[in-house]
Amino acid sequence: MAPSPVPAPGRPVGRASGTALPRAARPVELPPVHGALVCVALPALAVCAEHGQLTGGGPEGVYAAGRRLLSRSVLRVAGREPVALQGRMASADRAVFLGVLGVPGEAGPDPGLTVERTRSADGTEGIVLRSAAARPLRLPVEIALGTDLADLGAVATGRSGPELTASVHGTGLRWTGSDGWSAAVTADPAPTDSLAAAGVLRWEAELAPGAAFTIRLRVRGGAGVRPAGSPGAGPGRPGGHLLAEARAEADDPRVGELLRASVEDLRALLQRTPEHPADVYLAAGVPWRCGPVTAEALWAARMALPLGTRLAATTLRAAGRTQLPVGGAESGRLSGPLRDAGPGLPPRCTGIEATLAFPVVLAEARRWGLPSTDLEELLPVAERCLGWLRRVVGADGLVPDPGPAGPRRAETQAHAHRAALLGADLLDACGRPGGDALRDTARTLREGFRRAFWAGDGVGGGPVLARAADGRTWRRPGGWAAHLLDTGLLGDGRYAQGLLDGAETDRVARLLAGPALDSGWGLRGLGAKEPDHNPFGHRTGAVRTHETAIAVAGLTVAGHGKEAASLLRGLLGAAEVFGHRLPEMYAGEQRTAGGRPVPHPAACRPAAVAAAGAVHALLAPAGIRPDVPGGSVSVHPPASVPLGALRLSGLVVAGEPFAVRVSGLGLGMVEEAAGGLQLGV
Question: Does one domain contain both 100 and 188?
Fold first, then answer.
């Protein structure tokens, strides 16, 4: 896929410290895709309406390497389009459509023909006509095809241009664009007639009673020079071995379905960097966010660690290549564009997010069994990230985002504090200097946070979202507060100290579980009673799936099982309605009896942090604590048993299969683990 077609809200921030920040660009109004069936096997994808016809409208089409190879594929039998009955996803990369037609010359309401179409992300399609008529049929079948060979960015912004004129090519049609791109459709069996000017292929289908007639289409495209930055430049699809095929059995059958679909989506979102094909990472989301490696790729790799450490290693390697060179004012920071933070705050820096995530992912991957060769290669990058962190903590004990004059954000302080503590533990374990200095940095961050980001006492007070350099504050309760509960495991099996003390943790737990934030489908991005709450606002009220997942895990570790269970049940309810493919966000409307979660029209689905977040949330009740360097793994399930009896298998610890069972009484037991690991409960 090509880099994200949506202009970033500001230019990349690989700038010298102290330079002015750009103003955010006007956001692009993306075509709605919430009702589409999206088949994904990056760098290929297909966006389809539920009726199965590709009409050339909106974002519909078959894409490869960021180009739309086919925008129109309209089937007619005896001059009529089938009556669409059902469109569904059969797997992450394949959709199936079912329609019917009445038999010409026969009376009655019963359709005598069924039409099944199976479309895959890789550009293949099978069409099967099956007759239930009592007499032999001879029917004309035609498929009208077309394409504009538009770049996905042009499709997103409504600048796709007219369809191109086709020429006959072998057993199908071919289109060639002015920039050297071309696409060709081949058909089996060969059509009896081809009308290139109209883009039509025709067959005469002969059907005996009960017989079927099958057409197979295949679309392929290419260019003399592949566009720079296209992840499609890598050889083939990344292997499924990067992510284990985890399975779940639970009293609630939705658990197994959600885990299966989430792992499928994660595999479908894997893609390579063009210059270094061995660097595999997760695209942020389809169809609009398939660009270069981002902070979301690191977050998703962290949440997917129970599926193996290979993805974490390749993602860290790809992210590390973006690190700014030694010697500059921003030395050690990973590069990244600005991210829109909603109408209330200036944009934030994805490079800062990635820099603070890098040592955390590496430290936790080591605990899950990251091979020593990968650790040795990636450790210097983590050290430079941690060096940058120590330098940017200001006199106020806080990390500014996106620049020295930018606001201080509570979420950023939580990320920085976690990076300092886990980074210190990592350096100590690897015999590197700097651990004590990082623990001092963590202490400074905790003190700065308490002064700047907690309003009132632990009982009646609450966290502040952001603080400007001039002292102005934004106290806006929202799902962002979940990050304050996210810590991480240290070498002795304990969770790292968080930014909050016990009373403050309890207060945040009550906040997250309260009706203002818990919509019944997940956490709202902004409290429902806030003046500028918008249930569709991506930062002002929509449910963000990964924040809900982080809250579930954080609340579970903090001992707030009841609150975690409420959010987890909401996530499962939403997943069921969305066909177990959770979008990156959806409307924060309050759940009502018989109601359904409302999709966000521009949300990516599938999305890496949503799919990985589902894995993260579903595994929280097992309480798995790996310490492969220490030779042990233990499970600490909560007493609340939010999913009832649960069995997880196909996970990976120390590079070997791992399985755990939690009884309906909350008792955990490791059923399968690598030899040599000491097991604990």
Answer: yes
